[in-house]
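1st attempt posting a full record on here, be nice pls
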Amino acid sequence: MTRKADRDQIRRQNRSIVLQALRRNGPTARIDLGKITRLSPATVTAITSDLLDQKLVVSVESEEPKSHQSRGRPRTLLRLNPGVAYTVCIRLSVNTIDLSLVDFAGTITANRRTSFDSASADTNTFPPALISAIQDFLTDSGVRIDQLQEIGVAAQGVVETETGLVAWSPAFSGRKVPIIAPLEQAFGADCYISNDTNMITEALHWSDPERYSGTFAVVMLDYGVGMGLYLDDHLFSGASGTAAEFGHANHIPGGALCRCGKEGCLEAYLSDYALVRSASQLPEDTDPATIEAGVSGLKKLIERADAGDENARRAFHQAGRVLGYGLARVIALIDPKRIVLTGAAMRAYTFMEKGVWEGLKDALVEDLRNNFTLDVMPWNEDFIRTGLVAQSMERLDKDFLGVQVKAPRQEAS
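the predicted structure (as C-alpha cells):
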C-alpha cells in the first residue's frame, strides 16, 4: 500500500469514528469529541471542518443554562444533519415485507409492514412487488429518490451477498430470486443484502461492543434456523455470502425431511415445524409444508409443554440435544468466546436446556466446553432492523461525501 493510500484509509477511518461518536452521543463540542474518540485536536478540527463543508454536520448553540458567573457566547456544538441522506432498511420474511426509513442521524423516521404471497413469489413476480412497495413508502414519507443513498435488505434463507440473489428461502416459491440488481436499476442507490441472522449479530455488536466483539456466534431458532458469525471483530459471510448456514448443515444423513428438500439438516430437528412434527409423533418424512407450525404452532406447543404435556416436553428436550451437537461443531471449529441463542423458540429454553448441555457434553471434551459463554436472549423483532441500520450507517460513514464544495483537508495525524 502506498503512503497516500495509507493516509486516505486512516482519514476515512477517523472520519467514521467522528461520525459514529456524533451518532451515539448527539450534539457534541469539538473538545468533547476529542475526548470521546481519542483523536488529536488538530485531527478533530480537520475532520469536522470537512464534514461541515459537506453538509453532513451542522453547528448548533448549546442549550445548557448559563450560570451567574458564565460570560461570553454559548458553546458551539456539532450534530449530524439528519436530512442530508436517507436509507431504506427492509426485512423479507414469509408473506411479509417490513420497511424502515432511516435518516443520516440513524433515526428511524417511518415504518411500514406490507404483505405478499410467499406461495407464488418467484423471480418474475417478487422484484416488481418489492420495488412498488418501496416507491409507495418513499412517496408517503415525503422522501425523493435522489435523497435515497442506500437500500439494505435482510432475508430469511440462503442469501448470496455477492450476487444479490436469495438462493433459497421459505419466503419464496422460486429459487435464485434477484433482489439487488432490480433495486439498483429502479432507484439508482447502493443496495446490499444479507442473511437476517447476520443482522442480529451486527445489532448485538452495535448495541454492546464490549460484550459482543472478537469472535462470537448467534443462533436463531424460529421459522427455520439461522446463524451469524463474528470472526476477529468482523461479520463473516464467506466467499459468496452464504457462510454460516447452520440450519442446513447435515445432522443425520438420510434423516428427517427438511423444508429445503434435503434430509437430515439441523433445521429438520430444530425449527418450528420440526418441533411440531416431533411432538405430534409424525413420521420424519412428513412434508413440512403440511405441518401447522409457524409462530402460532410454536406458541401452542410451548403452552402444551408448560401444561406438562410429555410429548411436547420430549420434543423440546430432543431438539436441545441436537442443538448441543450442532453447537459443539461450531465451538470446535472457531473457538467463540460467546454463543447467543435467540428466536421465538427461546421461550421454551427451560425445556431444552438440559438437552443442550447433554449434547455438548457428549460431543466436546471438557476443556473445549469451558472456553465459551452461552447467552440465552429473548427474541426481539427489532434485532434485525437495528443490525440493518447499524450496517447502513457504517457504510455511509466511510463512503458518503455529502455536498463536497472543496477538496478535503490534510488532517494532522
